[in-house]
Amino acid sequence: MTVNDDSFTNWKNREEIAESMIPLIGKLHRERDVTVLLHSRSLVNKSVVSILKTHRFARQIAGEELSVTETLPFLQALTALDLGPSQIDIGMLAATYKSDDRGLSVEAFTAEAVAGATGANKIEGGEGRDVVLYGFGRIGRLVARLLIEKSGSGNGLRLRAIVVRGGGDQDIVKRASLLRRDSIHGQFQGTITVDEANSTINANGNAIKVIYANDPSEVDYTAYGIKNAILIDNTGKWRDREGLSTHLRPGIDKVVLTAPGKGDVPNIVHGVNHDTLKPDEQILSCASCTTNAIVPPLKAMDDEYGVLRGHVETVHSFTNDQNLLDNYHKSERRGRSAPLNMVITETGAASAVAKALPDLKARITGSSIRVPVPDVSIAILNLQLARETSREEVLDHLRDVSLTSPLRRQIDFITAPDAVSSDFIGSRHASIVDAGALKVEGDNAILYLWYDNEFGYSCQVIRVVQHVSGVEYPTFPAPAV
C-alpha cells in the first residue's frame, strides 16, 4: 500500500467517525437543548466535512489536528448523562482530559466536567421566548436565519413575526426570496414556503407572521398570539429611549436595537458588558459592528498590559446607506459611488468604547474608510500599552484568549499567511486577530482585526437576545477567567 493509499484510508475512516457523530449531536440538540461545540464552534447541523474541518482548527492549540477519534468518546459519554439545556465543548473536554493526571475514565471525567448541567443542577427547558423583527433588511434577514437555525428543541428563541412596510404586489413572496437566497451569505439552509393568504413565511417549520405597519403604534402583537416578546429593531430609525419605547406595545416586553443607542440607552457588547444589564431594563442597544469588533480585543489587551491611548482605523465594506452611483446623500462623501471609490467617513465606534468599557481610562480615537467590497471589514487598532512587551508574548496572549477565556466566542485567531477578507464571510466571531499582521515594538502594539460586519455582528445580537431572554445556557467546561 502506498503512502497516498494510507492517507486516503485514514480520511475515509475519519469520515465514518464524523458521520456517526451527527445523529448524536442532533439528538442532544433536539431532545435536551444541548449545543455541542468544538472550541467554541457549534457542531449542530454540520456536515461530515465541516466537522472534520472544525477539528483541524485545533492545530492552533497544540500544533496538531484534533482527531475525531479523540472527541467521539466524550460525545458518547454525554449521551449517557441526564443533561439539561447547555453548551458543551468536546474540544475543551478532550484538551483538559489530556492534562488531567488522576487516571479517570473518559466517562467519569466527562460527568465531573459537566456536573453543572446534570441532576439537581440542570436547567429545565421552558416554553421558549417570542421574538419579533421590526425591519427585514441585511441584518434582519441574517438574524432571522440564526433564530431559525437555533429553534432546535423549541425551548429557546422563537421567531414569531416580522414587521415591515407594505411593498405592493407579491411583497411577502419577494421578502421570502431574499431570505432564501443571499448573494454574499449563500442559500438558506433548509426549506421556505409562503402562505400569502395568511401572510406567513414558513421556514424549517417556523411559522413567521408578516405584519404590515407604517409605525409601531399601529401594532397590537397580542392579536397574533405573541406575548412577552423581545422586539429587535433593525431599522435604526429610532436610537434614543423615547423613540425606541414606542415599540413597547401589547405583547412586547423588551426592545433591542441593532445600531448604536443614544442618550442613556445601554450599548451592550456581548462578552464584555452584557452582565451589567439590569433585569428590568426594557430598552438596550447592541452597539455597532465595529464597536463589537474592537471592544473585546481592547479589553483583552487592557486586562493584560494596560492601555494608555489608542486609535482605530476601520477599512469597512460599503453598506446599504451609500449610493451605487454618484447621487445626493445627506452625509459628506457617502453620495459618491460605493463600488467605485474608497470613501473617507466617520465612525462612532471609538466614542462608543466608553459605554462598553467604562473602566478603560485610555482615550480612543477613530476614523473609517469605506471600500468597494460588499462584506467583511478590518479594524486596525493602534495601542500604546502601559508596559513593554514582545510580539511573541502578545500573540500567545491573544491565542489563549481566543481559545480558553470568556471572550472565546467574541475573539478568533488565525495564523494563515494568505488570508484575505472574503475568507471571513460567515465568521461567527465579533473579530478575528490576524497573527501574521500583528506588530509590536516596545510599548506599542498594532492589531489587525477582521470582522464580518454583517454575520459576525448578527451573532453578537443573538447572544445579547439570548442573555436578556434567559435562554443563554451555561458552557462546560467553564472557560478560564
Walk me through the structure:
The chain has 481 residues and is of the alpha/beta class. The protein has three domains: 3-121, no CATH class; 129-259, Rossmann fold (3-Layer(aba) Sandwich); 289-453, 2-Layer Sandwich (Dihydrodipicolinate Reductase, domain 2). It contains 13 helices and 22 strands. It has helices at residues 3-32, 48-56, 59-62, 68-79, 90-99, 106-113, 138-149, 171-180, 241-244, 289-305, 349-356, 391-404, 455-469, and strands at residues 34-38, 41-42, 86-89, 129-134, 157-164, 181-182, 186-187, 192-195, 200-203, 206-212, 229-233, 252-257, 283-285, 307-317, 343-345, 363-371, 377-385, 411-414, 431-434, 439-441, 444-451, 475-476. The chain has an eight-stranded mixed β-sheet. Strands 14, 15, 16, 17, 18, 19, 20 and 21 form an eight-stranded mixed β-sheet that branches. Strands 2-1-3-22 form a four-stranded mixed β-sheet. Helix 4 (68-79) crosses helix 6, helix 10 (289-305) crosses helix 11 and helix 10 (289-305) packs across helix 12 (391-404). The longest helix has 30 residues, at 3-32. The radius of gyration is 23 Å and the shape is globular. The model has no long low-confidence stretch (mean pLDDT 92).
